[in-house]
Amino acid sequence: METENKIISANKLTKKFGDFKAVNEITFDVKKGEIFGFLGANGAGKSTAMKMLTGLLSPTSGEATVAGFDVFTQQEEIKKNIGYMSQKFSLYDDLTLLENIHFFGGIYGLSKDELKERSSDMIQRLGLSDVSHKLLKEVPLGWKQKIAFSVATLHHPKVVFLDEPTGGVDPITRRQFWELIYEASDSGTTVFVTTHYMDEAEYCNRISMMVEGRIAGYGSPKELKKEFNAKNMDEVFVKIARGDNYTIK
Q1: pTM: predicted TM-score of the whole model, two decimal places
Q2: Coil, helix or strand for 88?
Q3: Do residues 72 and 107 touch, judged by C-beta distance below 8 A?
Q4: Which of 74, 89, 93, 218 is a Cys-bridge partner for 69, taking CB atoms 3.0 to 4.6 Å apart?
Q5: Other C-beta atoms within 10 Å of 61: how many?
Q6: What is the pLDDT of residues 10-19, one digit of tens each?
């Protein structure tokens, strides 16, 4: 059973590679339907943490559950209940949009009827009827991004993990992409997102900021700006990276 109102829960979650602790006893939770930002510089440990939470990497110690399933013993169940999108989008350029939808829908285990209904709804909702039979490589980057997100949520997962999803696109397209995130959150899907854009951190309900494998800042954007006496999230990030008010969680 899922802990009340918590879709992700981690307690002293740790991953070691030899003597090196890539993730060092991190403790946090993510609420159902929340947009949760997971931030940190390259090498801070956020990618390793995400791999553990998505069932791709076994932890060394600690505890964690995702969608009610244990990251140590129920990794396959976790994979069935989540969606995932990376900066590379994970779609196939040599397939059409419709072929991509059918391919990933089949992987997610959707029935023919479910796939027909959801693919039709997705194409109509995104206004993609005119390009549904085009090869994906012929579709603009911004559209690929929206398509990848929609495919990642095609099976109505409890949680969708987004790994630097808006890298390389213009600010207007980034904002449009976040509108899709809001829609998913409003429908009850929990969104766990990593980003290096501090303005995007403002869009999250709560944030965890990692430094050297540990959580150095944790709370809502408003709470973090107050804690670090900062005007914006850029300033919070600078102060955390510098070690000001360093509060390891």
Answers
A1: 0.90
A2: coil
A3: no
A4: 74
A5: 11
A6: 999 999 999 9
